[in-house]
Amino acid sequence: MTNDRKFQVRRIVGTVSWGACFLFLGSLGFARAAQSQVRQPPASQAGSARPSAKASALIDITGYWVAIVNEDWVYRMMTPAKGDRSFVPLNAAGQQVADAWDPAKDQAEGNECKAYGAGNIMRIPERLHITWVDDNTLQIETDAGMQKRLFHFDGSKWQGGDPELQGYSVASFEKQPQLRAGGAVHGPAAGTGGSLHVVTTHMRPGYLQKNGIPYSGDAVLTEFYHLIDLHGTGFLILTSMVNDPTYLREPYVLSSQFKREPDGSKWDPSPCRPLWPLSLRALTQNRRPGGGPAE
């Protein structure tokens, strides 16, 4: 399949009616990510008079969320073919690692969770549970893979040691351009509203996709979380950027969306799986010529 054809399949499968709204918000995050590159969020200043991150949060993203897979469907809901690195800017070293991917070897070595590290965990079809574990630490739990990420608002306290699957994340709340009546975009406004800026380092090497597309221990993940309300429903828009001098020739930028859920009744913890049950080949082979699913 040609690259043009892949692009058509990938985008047509993921299109939804409100994608333009998310694309606009994602572009704001992309612009800010490009400006910030991998700068760390400012550490909180010492002093008892300074309010905690929980007390001074500009947006409230706590609660339950479900991933909306409205783009890159075949790359997220299924395991891409070995060597399929479409749209991931791998350098020569990264391509070599991707082409050598062996899922059986990963499973035999206990590395089923390599695609569930910080570099890809927010792209997994999943539900999130976000809570404050203390006044300056926000926790994101995933039911898929049963992972936990901790966002530290009191500056980096990394003491060294072995890298971890979810790395070490430093976070801050920041003001963002506000959308006003008539669609005009203005500078930061007083009052509530803003975004969550997170920078993650000290990650254990992992995969950017389930088919062994690698990121190294030198990778840095920068994220911007935006909260919007659309017709009374909350949506969490995430713009993420992976910088990896070892395996990427340029930053890898993605936008992901999550929809707020009223409670945890659909929460379904499951262990890491090295492969999704479906592959694109299996799906196409098991469909009737008319397009309906096979019985």
Distance between the termini: 28 Å
Tell me the domain tally: 1
Low-confidence stretches: 1-25, 186-191, 286-295
Number of strands: 13
Structural class of the helices, strands and pairings?
Answer: alpha+beta
Largest sheet: 9 strands, mixed, barrel
- Kindly report the average pLDDT value: 81
Estimated radius of gyration: 20 Å
Strand order of the largest sheet: 1-2-3-4-5-8-11-12-13
H/E element string? HHEHHHEEEEEEEEEEEEH
Structure commentary:
- It is a single chain.
- With 295 residues, the protein is of the alpha+beta class.
- The protein has one domain.
- Helix content is 18%, strand content 27%.
- The chain contains 6 helices and 13 strands.
- It has a 9-stranded mixed barrel.
- Strand 12 (233-243) and strand 13 form a beta hairpin.
- The protein is globular.
Reconstruct the topology from this structure.
Layout: H1 3-13, H2 19-36, E1 63-68, H3 73-76, H4 92-99, H5 103-108, E2 127-134, E3 137-142, E4 148-152, E5 168-174, E6 178-179, E7 185-186, E8 195-201, E9 206-207, E10 214-215, E11 220-230, E12 233-243, E13 252-261, H6 280-285
Parallel strand pairs: 4-5
Antiparallel strand pairs: 1-2, 1-13, 2-3, 3-4, 5-8, 6-7, 8-11, 9-10, 11-12, 12-13
